[in-house]
Amino acid sequence: MKKRSTPMEIVNPHAAGIDVGSRSHFVAVGQGADQVREFGVYDADLQELAAWLHGNRITTVAMESTGTYWQSLFTALQQAGLEVLLCNGKFTKNIKGRKTDVQDCQWIQRLHSLGLLSGSFLPDRATEELRTYCRHRTSLLETAAVTTQKMNKYLRLLNLRLDVVVRDVTGQTGMAIIEAICAGEIDPLKLASFRHGNCRKSKDEIARALCGNGRRDLLFALTQELELYKVLQEKVAACDVAIENLLKEQVASDEEKRGLRADPKPYKRVNKNAPKAMDLNQLAFQYFNGVDLLKIEGVSHATVLALMSEVGAEGIRKFPTAKQFTNWLKLCPNTKVSGGKVLSSHIPKGCNRLKIALRQAANAIGNLRETHLSDFFRRIAFRKGRQAAVSATARKLAVIIWHMLTYRVPYNPPTQYLFLDEKRKLKLVQRIKKNIAKLDLKPEELGLATA
Fold this sequence. Notes:
alpha/beta; 4 domains; globular
């Protein structure tokens, strides 16, 4: 019996596949043994690789994203004028059997020539630069948090229970006391005199908590950690300046953005780790071309900064629909249906920094009252628990942000949320109206009559 074959149409006839490695890259321009070559990772090797692809009339290249080894090769191929497709590793898995680098690059080349690969999301150059600053800043803050924990540890071993009487040892009261301890001060009453006026504990209680044992080794370690913490804070401040300068450059390049002015938001609390030197409210309003994301309840400066650094101003337009955006964030269930029966509907594993920021914003929304999003949060939490409510609210936030940035529309919830100062103003107006009605006062008596 004659065998039947089902040929597939070649979509990309001039396609190549690259298996990216840490020390070498395997490149395939076809399925033959003589159509595969290995190149090094130095700049001269990358230029030779690009020249070899041009010599074989290659116009499009697909590569597997492995760690960070692909970035230099990706940039070199783009500068050489080639169309580069960065693919997720789970979409380029080889068939079962013996696995080699040569087979991997040939399999990627075959899939790409048949048009079976899709590229991953990549931001533009300006957004990538901002992302580098923000991610480095986050790394510095994580290191500073570890340093704070070590300072707490050495204070506890010195029997200086500053963590009991002060909520944050790196606050004004805590830092003043720690600096005095490292300078050699041991008198509890003098240490307690550094208490800030906002501290809830009294000087006497703080003095009782600061009677230490005076061990030299622990004091030396505490001094070292304090110096390291100060250095890290200086580095974070330098990162803030670099981020502000970059955002101002991007805003200054567009004349339309320069003329935009955002409404002040005194009710938005600035977190301790948020950038304080810059006016992020104004910069974000100009960066997103007049879309005010901070109008959304629960969205903080850290949330907006994560969106700016991970997606960018125009990067969100690469997602045609809000569903694709939430799918990229891994915030929507991966529903699997077979035979009309739902097999599973779990949210897929994995997360990026923007997903974490949206989940933190959703968790903050769950603590609010009388808002459209907090009502939605409580309805989900009542049926499925708080964890499911955080994921559902984070997805809803992502959809709202996608619509606001894509269609350039303001945030318009069904029920407006009033912040604390707005509530006070509304209550004051209502009380004045009530007194006017009670006393039966006329506009002429109040001096409000006009000619």
